[in-house]
Amino acid sequence: MLTLVQTLAEKIINAHLVEGEPIRGANAAIKIDQTLTQDATGTMAYLQFETMGVGRVRTERSVAYIDHNTLQSGFENADDHRYIGSVAKKYGIYFSRPGNGICHQVHLERFGKPGKTLIGSDSHTPTCGGIGMIAIGAGGLDVAVAMAGGAYHITYPEIVGIKLTGKLHDWVSAKDVILEVLRQLSVKGGVGKVMEYFGEGVKTLSVPERATITNMGAELGATTSVFPSDELTRQFLKAQGREEDYVELSADEGAKYDKVIEINLSELAPLAACPHSPDNIKPVAQLSDIVVNQVCIGSCTNGSLQDLLKVAHILKGKTVHEKVDLSIAPGSKQVFNMLAECGALSDLIDAGARILECTCGPCIGMGQSPVSAGVSLRTFNRNFVGRSGTKDAQVYLVSPETAAASAITGVFTDPMSLGAMPEYVMPKEFKVNDNMVTLPASEADADKVEILQGPNIKPFPSNSALPDKIWAELVLKVGDNITTDHIMPAGAKILPLRSNVPAISEHCFVVVDETFPKRAKAAKEHGGSIIVGGANYGQGSSREHAALAPVYLGVRAVICKSFARIHRQNLVNNGILPLVFANESDYDKLHQGEFISLPFVKRELEAGDDITLKSGEFETKLKNDFSERDRNMIVAGGLLNMFA
Fold first, then answer.
1. For the chain, which terminal residue's Cβ has fewer other Cβ atoms within 10 angstroms, N or C?
2. What are the helix and strand counts (H, E) for the chain?
3. Active-site residue 289, yes or no?
4. Active-site hit among 153, 543, 556, 567
5. How far apart are CA 35 and CA 117, in angstroms?
6. Which pLDDT tens digit goes with each residue over 575-584?
7. What gap in Å lies between CA 424 and CA 348, rounded to an integer?
8. Interval 370-420: pLDDT, tens
9. CA–CA separation, 563 vs 481, rounded Å?
10. Strand stretches in 510-568, DSSP E
11. pLDDT at res. 105
12. pLDDT band at 3 (very low <50, low <70, confident <90, very high)
């Protein structure tokens, strides 16, 4: 039931509710106003969209970004960009060309609107929560459905209120705020929840600072994070020439949260996420004198003009330590242009920084891999094993202030030890130039647009309908916090294969077990395979390929203690059963290489009964907590099969 007193998240979600009731834990569906894709996930999303037979996107605004696979060492990435551009032109999608910037930074600057809903085929889509949107990361198929006019299905979330008081010290930043939240809640603490920020401390944070916090809220496993839309939001939109998009939005006085966490900004000190998890938090002061080999500044988390002006003023007149390799990637062309015009870019270059293009780059292992066993300080959002491109690298996540200070000294340095923060001034107006955004063809001219597919683009794999029973080999058993980087690695060698599932499947789980693809394909010839995992299986990226590759390799079910939200839905969307142990201790009773039977799986799934599992003499139950829609999808072998 709708209440008269609502949180901000409830206001926006309830205004878009098209199915279900606003009851915590209930199945619901919301209307989607905007979508975004990026090139690593976009090709599959648009192939899926094309199969739906819709002549034009039905959202208020859909944008396709080229920002991930921009290292063109072969034809693959360039061909994929050409395909996405042609689809965008034909179907009514705005196309942000290579060099225009990272999707989340550009969407915040140019397209995000307070009070609107956004889903994107990238897990850091919640960045736009910094401008007062309900912005959610999703699988590519869910985004394709939204572009076709379909609703986005969610479990109605709990709302966690994070009350901010006080004001940050000069050398403490928004990155330290979200690291503190991760320290308190962990990478599993946000699953099934929305993080809503409120309190007097909110008024001390700019929109870019808020966006840093909502961006890394993805590492909590949260559905999304959101800030109020207030006078600072209006000033940001006015500076972007978009004041007409401003709407004042906040929680009602007396709104009730399911849980409240209070953080006094005045008490925070610089923090770092230590290897190899975003919630492995320590004060920077405790890490002093660790020798640093590399510093990378930028990404969708900390690539704003405010972040890089701070860095430029810290580095001005100084030289990067002789043993440190410093690279800086502005988040957008707008940021890059303005750094150049005000002279800050010259200060960065003079100090010895290597200036990269406005893309994700090192954050996804697309270049700038550190030395063997090297210590790399990054202002990014993830530090999973191998994500940097170097398997034994020690990657720390830090603020731009800590990164810049450490680049100068050559050791892990608490920036509060540097004295007074150099002054910097934010401009009242931003340089607006959307010449790198290609507009779609008119509806009348859409038929004249040719879709251009290169030879690297292969059809996405389709699953078969769920059989009455499953008898399959347990081909892989893994532990807790398996990330989508474990399942489907990124990096310069693998990302160009995102449009070619047969080829990219050869890399599935090789970070964990190099023999997995070969063994899974062998098991596919005899009924398929099953994977068993621990808690929070599938955390991290929204990458749908972590489900598509297992489909291609014949995986029928994944049985775990618990799943990360986006990956669980990606498995369902593609017809793989994500099952949860009714008794977590049963995890210890299953062993890699044995055969598992789900003898009544179809009947039990359709009836809503718990799923029977047998292995030799051992028998147990697995939870059947699927919605009716999810059950129908799995029985059909996936979402597209259900509507075929």
1. N
2. 20, 27
3. no
4. 543
5. 9
6. 999 999 999 9
7. 14
8. 999 999 999 999 998 888 889 899 999 999 999 999 999 999 999 999 998
9. 9
10. 529-532, 555-560
11. 98
12. low
Helix (H) or strand (E) run with residue 145 in it: helix 140-147
382 is catalytic: yes
Torsion of CA 170, 171, 172, 174, to 10 degrees: 80
Phi-psi region of 45 (alpha: psi -120 to 50; beta: other; left: phi over 0): alpha
Please tell me which residue in 16, 61, 68, 124 is annotated as part of the active site: 68
Residue 620's beta-bridge partner residues? Answer: 613
Helix (H, G, I), strand (E, B) or coil at 332: strand
Angstrom distance (rounded) from CA 8 to CA 19 = 20
**463, 637 Cβ separation under 8 angstroms:** yes
CB atoms within 10 A of CB 392: 13
Phi, psi (degrees; rounded to nearest 5) at 112: -65, 145
Decide if pLDDT at 643 tops 80: no
Identify whether the C-beta of residue 561 lies closer than 8 Å to the C-beta of residue 567.
no
Contact present, 58 and 149 (Cβ < 8 Å) = yes
- Which DSSP string do the residues of 126-153 spell out, in sequence order? GGGGGGT-EEEE--HHHHHHHHTT--EE
Compute the distance between CA of residue 450 and CA of residue 469 in angstroms, rounded to an integer.
Answer: 44
Residue 43 DSSP code:
H
Confidence (pTM):
0.95
Name the active-site residue from 33, 39, 67, 513. 67
Q: What is the pLDDT of residue 417?
A: 92
Integer Cα distance of 296 and 308 in angstroms: 12
How far apart CA 48 and CA 32 sit, in angstroms, is 18
Q: If we measure between CA atoms, which residue out of 287, 137, 99, 130 comes closest to residue 197?
A: 130
Per-residue pLDDT tens for 73-108? 889 999 999 999 999 999 999 999 999 999 999 999
| pLDDT score for 366 | 86
51: enclosing H helix or E strand: helix 39-51
Name the percent of the chain lying above pLDDT 90.
91
Q: Is the dihedral of CA 173, 179, 181, 187 positive or negative?
A: positive
Within 10 angstroms of residue 535's Cβ, the number of other Cβ atoms is 18
541 labelled catalytic: yes
As given in the structure block, the two tokens for residue 176 are: 């330290």
68 is catalytic: yes
What is the average pLDDT score of the chain? 96
Contacts of 96 (CB under 8 A, 6+ apart): 63, 64, 65, 66, 67, 103, 106, 436, 437
Distances from the Cα of 525 to the Cα of 460, 465, 473, 521, angstroms: 20, 17, 11, 7
3-state secondary structure of 258: coil
Residue pair 368/374 in contact (Cβ under 8 Å)? The answer is: no
Q: Has 543 been annotated as catalytic?
A: yes
Statement: residue 1 has pLDDT above 60: no
Q: Which of 44-48, 354-358, 365-369 has the lowest mean pLDDT?
A: 365-369
Given a cut of 60, whether residue 2 has pLDDT beyond it is no
Split at pLDDT 50, 70, 90, the class of 491 is confident
Q: Cα 358 vs. chain centroid, distance in angstroms?
A: 18
One DSSP character per residue, 524-535 reads HTTT-EEEE--T
**Alpha carbons 429 and 527: distance in angstroms, whole number:** 61
Q: What is the pLDDT of residue 4?
A: 83
Out of 541, 556, 562, 586, which one is annotated catalytic?
Answer: 541
Per DSSP, 245 falls in state G
Q: Is 67 annotated as catalytic?
A: yes
Task: Write the single-letter amino acid at 483.
Answer: T
